[in-house]
Protein 1
Amino acid sequence: MATRLKIFLPFGLLILSVLIVPVSVMLISSLQNMDGGFSFSNYHQIFFSRYYRGAIYNSISISLITSLISLVISIIGAWALTKLSLSTKNILITVFNMSSSFAGVPLAFSLIILFGNAGVFKAITSTLHVHDALNIYSVTGMTFAYTFFEIPLGIMFFFPVLDSLNREWFEVSDVLGASKMFFISKVIFPIILPNIVEIFVLLFANAMGTYETVYALMGNNLVSIPTVIGSLINGELVANVPLACAFATLFTVIMTIIVWLGNRVTNIKGRRIS
Amino acid sequence: MSSIFLEVKDLSINLSGNQVIKDMNFKIQKNTLTTFLGPSGSGKTTVLRAIAGLNQKISGKILLDGKEIQNLAANQRNIGMIFQSYALFPNLSVFENVAYGLRVRKESNAVIKEKVGAILKTVNLQDKEQSYPENLSGGQKQRVAIARAMVLEPKILLLDEPLSALDAKIRIELRNQIREYQQRLGITMLFVTHDQAEAMAISDEIIVMDNGKVQQQGSPLEIYKHPQNIFMAKFIGNHNILEAGQLRSLGVEVAENDKSSFIIRPELFQTNITGDSDDYIVVSGNIKNISILGDRIEYRLTSDNGLELKAEFLNQQQTFTVGKAVKFYVRKGDIEKVGF
Amino acid sequence: MEKHADKVIAKIVITLISVYLVAPIIATIMYSFAKSWVNTILPDGWTLEWYLQLVTNSDFLSALVRSIILGIVTTIIAMCCFLPVVFYANVYDESIKARLRFITVLPFTIPGIVLVTGLVRVYANLPIPQMLVLLLAISLLSLPVTYQALDNAFIAHDFRAMFEQALILGDSPLKAFVKVVIPNIRVGMFIAMLLTFTSAFGEYVLTNIILGGNYETLKIYMYRLMQSNGQASSVLTTVYFFFLAIISIIMIAIMKRQGNKKVEEVGDTKKL
């Protein structure tokens, strides 16, 4: 018992001090008004203010679209990756690993060089006399920007799944004379479906929580859940930490439910490959 | 008379809420090789770990050489143990692996060099001193593990399925070597296995376990010939197990109210009678299936009254073909009665 | 025939995706060597002056040092907290791993911006050094990566048997840990430390909000430069990129070596 205590003490203290206590306090604060009394006013404010509803709407629509696009591309990418030679795989995995950790300020800056108002893309389009090209500083632009870290993340999640599919299945199916489409729809798709759901959930959650890239690109000009939380804490609008807590609580509750549901789907299917 | 060396009294062990060992009692004599035999999940490894001091919570007593050891930490018990996965330290050479315990005991370099050299010679690995575990074969790794345990001259050496990760041929070779070390060096060994043949081949004494309990303890011959209950009869060999009614149908007198089972060992069938025919029962039927076991042949036959029986003969006599009508004989005195 | 067609399609797909993902990085690298690059398809000319300017800039050097300090201290804290737990889960009680599974989804359910809200609420007005709060919080955020990497370190050998064997041979648990466990997980530990260091080194959200820009790390400096001096910022981004690349290459090299070793070992046990 004493050994156990010693082993778990540092870990326990860390979890307690920077996870359990802050998250609990955040939960409680979300139910307090500015004077400290109990009230639902924060939540009321979130749901009845057009501005805050817009933040939720923006976050969800950007995340949904970007994670769906990234999901499809990363399945195709991961499939392609399994077809390559081992050394090429290793190099590409390094590349994808890096581009996913390139997210944030560096990515924002790169995108400004490419797609900013004085960027390469603008130069190309104006030479070609194309107008109304992509504006990176917009909801659409953000959706586009997120794909730069969502796609590599998706590929890195999918690659092990597709790589571990049993090669003998393909051979058996060939021997049985099944067509490729038949095999993919009847065998492969049902097997990886739980993984697709799980990875989609993770990509969606990751997009929902993205702050650094948006903030670096647009400051608080794009209204999304993370940027609203950021400005409520930093006081760039009006500092209102309880309201920020309500937003953060809402975020955590929704994400926990979604991730939990995603896990449930995976476990019910019970044929998880990882 | 040899003396009792290890005694386990009323041992009970709970693992994550389940009582996996229930009031277990047994004794082991000095300088013998005793085997714990049982199906997987029967609790044999758990008992071994309790003796080594690796289980956290046990109740009951463990006496080694007259002293209670159940409250001592694992590093105070002077017991050796061999693991199935060898548990060699990959970062140390063979020499340093074997020297590990001696270094813990702070022996001098000269003593270590001498003892390690001698024991590596015993296990025939003197030329591998400077090798690292990753460059050894499975059999060599296990011999290093054995040397590492034996060099400390432990009071008792516990072996937890030491051969199960090895190929069939190496297994037989190594089990004979283990038996040889045991006899030559006079070590008390307690050996866990799920393989009946292995247990039969090397043991002085076998303790068969199932479901957290001792089912039977005895010499290999005793256990093989006289299984105490149905579990033992099924587990230990390839015996024919018959109910009273089935035996009666073969012409053996069995009391009307007898609910026992009976075993007929397949190798006790004969193709002809030697001596008084009244001592025998006759089984006539047709050969259904033949398996060549190498030195022996197993026939499965369906008797005329519908029983399925197995008979084994040495692979030197006439052979029967499938479908042939045959008569096999077995001595009435060879039919063994077992309880439940 | 079909197999061949598959490979060609795969190569095309991968090339397109890689070009797409790498384009921003390439553009940044080009920008960092460009004399000037405004409203043109290619830069006007090439120069190294931005690099010289950055390297001699004291702001850059002190930001670099701050980030390194943050990385090192976080790595130490993370190791102290997580190594014993991962060791315990692997050697004493596997069932703990199931209970620690929540860790893997932590960054998705509680991302930095959410965690920081709670932290600010609790600690902002308390008389404790905010730096401490930051260090602990970054350690926590690195938990999924560190935990996974450490856990992987325990895959290669039967550590439970090795540890128990050392106890039976007479060692105390602590000595057994130091003599038998640590030397055999050192590579995995190194990878875990590298990953933890990288994630702390590049941390932005927590540092910016908790310390309010008073502690200018590389990322915060990068953000400031981005607002004022594009060229200098592109140099910094390029440097940062190469830092990530070097760490990735080191890790791939180590894992490759380990992988080869494992294959050999499996071959050995089969060979006998």
Protein 2
Amino acid sequence: MRGRLWRLAVWLFVVGFVLNLVGIVGHVVVSSFARRWFATPVPSAFTTEWYAYAWREFQLDQVLMVTLTVAGTVTAAALLLGFPAAYLLARHEFRGKGPLLLLFFLPLLVPQMTYGIPLATTLYRYRIGGTVAGVIAANLVPMLPLAIFVLLPFVEQISVNLEWAARVHGATRLQVFRRVIVPLALPGLLTAGLLVLVNTVANFELTFLLSGAGSQTLVVALYYAVFAAGMRPIYSVDAMAVIYMTIVLAMLVLALRFVRPTQMVFRLDRRD
Amino acid sequence: MVTSLAFRLTKRFGAKIVLDDLALEVRGREFVTFLGPSGCGKSTALNLLAGLLPPTAGEIRLDGVRIDGLPPERRGFGMVFQNYALFPHLTVGANVAFGLAVRGLAKAELAPRVRRMLELVRLAGLEDRYPGQLSGGQQQRVAIARALAVEPRLLLLDEPLSNLDAKLRLEMRGEIKRLHAELGLTSIYVTHDQTEALSLSDRIVVLRDGRVVQAGPPAEIHDRPRTLFVADFMGYRNAFPVTVSSAEGDTVVGHARDVTLRGLGVVALAPGTAAVAVVRPEDVEVAPEPAGANVVRGTVRFTEYLGREHGVEVVLGTGQTLMARLPRPVTVGSALALRLPPERVVILPAEDGAR
């Protein structure tokens, strides 16, 4: 009896969740293709012209370019800086490592607005605020710790013995890194890269605070499209939202082809 | 070809002394074993030689040239680890070729050398497998091939057989011995297993708390232990406190309350000093007569069948227990007279010489 109730509850939850999701997403998608949509269950006529409109009106080519530049640069920088840092943190024990790690990961725990505003003020003072570089710098503040945080266990599970074996048999430090550490940490690098990429594309607060006219990413542009002065057809905003959703989804699907989150644990040494 | 390796090493981790001025000279083609319980510093010594850990003090000379300043990759050694330490993302072939590939050898040159190495360890044809697809014994063979592929000036082996089951261990022991001789290697082997040390080594160095307790050929370590620690490690499980009555040359006579024991004196002992007579269970035999020299009497407390022989625990009149291995079964509770052959009894100073 309890088992059946339980199953029913799970079913209801799943159905509710899916309906909710389909309802929200479906509404936006349908609306973006609607010529007009008032007080009827479905729009009376469909069109794709809102996409062209949104593309022109919101300068989406430029916004997409900025989004890609920011996301790509933040991801590359977070991995390039985060991997050596994760390696050092994984391999070396020192006093105060615990508190240091906590301090390090503070930007991940604290709401971004709390440090975003002083960060923005500082960056504007140095005239970095409002530029693409400013957006990249601000996004790196939480993304670098995130990359380190994700990479740390991946590096930790690589046995020191493997490094030792490589060194004894003739590999320099650099060769050990390139031939042993990086290939073995590859699942971690992909995972960290994916998380940083998605988080940067989705980041609103920091990008909002730091971006100027020519340095808006898609989310921020979407926000301005909705709330900026002047009337804009809701259908064009919906079209923009669909573009945003499609991009994030495409990125996720592409990434999931390379990373299987459920099988992230890589088989290493049998012991230790 | 290496003709000599000489080192003198001290290693401290904080206040803890792991190696206390361990000094040794190894000849070319020699097989030297560091033998000792865990924590005696034997693995640390190997890691210092390989350059994986920095020594606190000391030096290493290879053919007279100091190498302790060199990073591990420039020492030209090979090393076999207890847990194999094979690269899981590389094939067997790439694992074996690793040392040559990082030295910049062309791909075309690698393949034949890898094949030859795998033939040497009897794994021909497994180049394209991954380590995870091999058994423990096969993995250790790959690890040995990887170490040998670089034509090491010195081969370091850190308990390479400890993770293998008993049958495989015996087989691989033979393999290591064969390869060492065939290739004219100079090897340093670390183990806590005295049978491995005895069967493989030209010389055994027994370590305790980072110091050498005794060093010498296997037969000498086995038959003439100089301290109780070494004797215990070599299987002298029976120990009787005695007082030295006389010592002449090699022969020492000691007496306890109701028994006189004649044995081998490895260390000089003055009459009157406290000593310990030790003997292996395997060397104890049933006495032909109930009394006489080196004969003790007691009651059988426990027996176990061991196949070829019978393990017997006898309680002596003094309350001490004596372990023996006898060819014929005895009954629990029966009285038994046992003879400790003088040529197999060793009489050692009571205080441990290692301290």
Protein 3
Amino acid sequence: MEIFILAFFALGYLVLAGADIGVGMTLPYLGRSGAERREVIAAIAPFFLGNEVWLVATAGVLAGLFPELEGELLAGNYSVVVVLLLGWIVRDMGLWLRGRVPGRRWAGFWDGAIVAGSWGLALSWGLLLSHVLLGIQGPVALLPALVVAALFATHGLTFAALRLRGVLRERAAVLSGGSGGPVEARTYTLTTGALVAVGVLAGLRLPLHPGTSGSLLVPVILVLIPLLVAAQGWVWWTFRHRVTGPSYL
Amino acid sequence: METVDLARLQFALTAGAHFLFVALTLGLATLVAVVQTRATLTGSPVHMRMTRFWGQLYIINYAMGIVTGLVMEFQLGLSWSGLTEYAGNVFGSALAIEALVAFFIESTFLGLWIFGWNKLNRWAHLALIWIVTLTAYASAFWIMIANGFLQNPVGHVVDGGTLRLVDFGAMVANPAAQVAFWHVMGGAMITGGFFMAGVSAYHLRKRTAEQDFFRKSLRLGIGVALPATFVTATFGGISFDTMQPTKIAAWVGSAERLAEAQAEMVARLGPGDYLPPVEWVRGGGLTMVILLVVMLLVAAASCVLMAFRPVVRGFRLWHWLLTAMIPVPFVTVIAGWIFREMGRQPWAVYGLLKTADAMSSVTETQMRFSIIAFASVFSVLILINYWLLARHARRGPDAVALGDRPIDTPSAPALSF
């Protein structure tokens, strides 16, 4: 059961946050002007806080249920995890700060931070997954890391195609082979499946030996999960329609 | 510096930075929730504008709290895997509950509160800010349970070289955690209260046209800060009963108390140096106590002064003093934290695991890389965020973007489908 809980949060993170990371990576392609980029960001704005928290939860599950693996995984990939965190910080700050001061240069600078941070995040996920999945480290690992990053970017595009309208939607649907609701949904399902597959395969390679507090924590977490999903469901439901203009960010 | 010292410095810098933002977050969230309740109940426009203005400052501050908090959470596994492997089965449960019960909900609903402005039913929107506030308290609670265990381990047994949790209730009821939680909550309310009062006083000194707006805000800020200083002082006083003998000896600072505490530890655990760095403990503790007295006096005097409307409008020296007080609670909470955490040394888990044995097997190069990277990125971001906080605070309620228009309504003719 401990393994199911870990998988639930880790896979949830890859699928949900994978989309906002991918949109950040493809921001220069999707949005060609400041106004367009702001609208593209509105596609992920209401979700990114609720998405990244799945990784915080995954780390919490590791700390509570797999304390040994937590150390092995994080300390064993020290530099990659540090870069991942830096990418995450820079991406988030780009999102928060881009609209705080009027002016094109200010927004442009922080848009750059969003793109750089998103790429940093995706590539360090790629490096981390390559190490876990294929056991390779160092410069060679950049090759599989790029494949993972491309998967994040594609996933971001398929998500953006479901959220945006007009020319932005057409750009996002470039890989879907034509726009239109059902095609877009199918492509999103496809990239989701690919991310889940990568996550599951990597998980199978991990030494998943639970610690000793499962008897206490597992029931608590199982009771919580429906509540957490309902909370997230409220966000998804509130913002289920396509973006029609800029948001707060 | 040795690798373990670098790791400690890195943890101290990120934890200290995180605490600065968290203290204000906890205080401001409460104040925003109170103001929004008033706005929702009465429909008063000034309270709605207050919600948006203080809410905007709260969000600017919150964003920095998140990113510093992320590094905190991951740093335990990164740099201190000796600690998580040894004690993770015990205090890791508190961290897991914090992440799932508290932060997950807090973050999800904060997003809904920000982006759902003018989109959700106003009662639902009000419920959101209260859930965000209460889960922020819950977050502080579970973090203090984890910290309390490291200060005063209870509810565990040693089993095969690592710790195992046997009494969850005892871990939660740990006095070293419970007392500290209320002490920290009080400190956060002081921070939020003085912030609100200080920013309001700035505008009143500038002869703002928003007299009503900032008079109400100033009264609310002081009205929360004054009782909070009593709560903080009371629980701070009680906490001396739950403190490690070595920390108390360092606080008293007399040679005989120190020798006594050291001898007691040697008798229990064998030869070794068991005393914390005395200057840090005394310096932190004294700074905290002196500044708390200063805040108590200023808050008490302000509580009297704010009853008189002409004084609130025109007593500029007092306005200036209140604005100058904004940084004081921040310095105080950092001093208190130094007192508590330096006083725990040389232990990571008091009496069980030394800090030097809690580290991961990380090379000095890796540690230097990460500390330089985190320190430079965070110092730039902290400066920018404080600059923004000051800028938005100065600009006043008319320049607020939060909730200024219905979100997701077309700002231009709909693009072609």
Protein 4
Amino acid sequence: MVELDSGRARPPGGGEWRSAARTRAGTARGGTGRARLRARASVVVLVSLVLAAVLVPMLSPAPGLVDYTSVRMPPEPGHPFGTDTSGRDLFVRSWAGLRISLLVAAVSTLVSTVLGSAVGAVAGSFGGWVDRLLMRVVDAINSVPHLLLGIVIVALYRGTVLAVVLSIGLTHWATVARVVRSEVLGLRNRPYIDAAISAGAGRWWVLRKHVLPAIVPQAVLSAVLLVPHAVFHETALSFLGLGLPPHLASIGNILGDGRAAVLLGAWWIVVFPALLLVATTLAVSGLAAGWRDRAVPTRRSELSL
Amino acid sequence: MLRASGLVAGYERGKRVLDGVNVDLPRGGVRGLAGPSGCGKSTLARVLALLQRPWAGTVELDGSPIRGFRHAASRRQRTAVGVVFQQPRPAVDPRMPLRRVLEEPLRASGERGVPERVAELTELTGLDGELLGRFPHEVSDGQLQRACLARAIALRPRYLICDEMTGMLDASTTAALVRVVDEQVRVEGTGVLAISHDESLLHAWAGDDVIRL
């Protein structure tokens, strides 16, 4: 009985129904229901976080305001996130910190993605010694822990935002380059590339019209996934005292300042900024996960084959 | 005349797919090339379309030897030999609507009057004009192969290699595409190499002019 029922519910050939339905109703309109919901929720959360990070510091008194009459105040109506060891309001300071952390992460992600895509595309399409040389550079960068290499770069130009951006951006492009290169290698022998060459298309044309459009989804996806990673890197550098200068409130600075205070019972100095960081990270990766299933046209067409 | 002599070619080191092959393709006619699966028909097609460098042997295009293949061949040489593959689906970029597939050779060569030529090619190959806005995964194999043939003849190549062009198609589409190619031979004087494992089809198309690989 039960088997009969389940047999009727299933299409001939097992899972074929599901993939066909996904192709038409799901993938074309942005993933299955739950994934779509998750992606939408992530967008809402992310947009509100970014808006708050921009607006809260703008509408409030300067976040750097030190007030020694009210140090380490627990959360209360006047200070919803409490105050830190210098009596600064943590609500304003945390949002300002998120703003700077996000900015640094976004710019360094952009640097990594552009650099990585360029290197990967060139290595993949030219091949030969160009490919070997570039990939050895990638290996060299990947063989050193990113944080260590980042510290070296930061140490050269201590205490500037640019140094932090470069130290994150210049250490993370190697992964992007590898992903993009393998994508390009897979494309190089496609019959439609042959057809384009036979139709008179030059190298530049093939790169622009066929290769780049094909790698954009991959590149954007790895960029999105890199943002939370870059936030963590910035936080780690600042936490170590190597990142942004102390007067710029980044999440890492706040956490670094607060770690001694935790032992004095001031848990709020660490918990609230960390919560913002975690919420941002989850929202970004939720967005990426929802988006992964989505309109990557190659995948769409391969599914419908 | 598109002439290949002493061709040796393959993909893996030491494993020859073609071993000393000679082919002549005169203009203004259809020559059949028959051979069982795996005998190197498609490899020969790729070499003749200047898409793969042979390990040894020469390819001559209208009397002048070909020195480079793929991008190392000049645009004029590459576009002198059109090619249609067996499977239309992998032969078109899944991100391009059919209109852009047809436009590609024209735009890549900086031709004028692109919309007019596209309309002409659509008419010529019997491609449903309403499909031009669709993506490859939204049309049938037959319509897609029509688009591939249209793309291959867009620049009026002097030679056309049809590598199992009709292998995936039903009888009526096969007949329609063969008519289109025959029309090219008559009007443009194209030299066609029709490659297939199906000798009866080749005899029906090329008469007695069928060579075996």
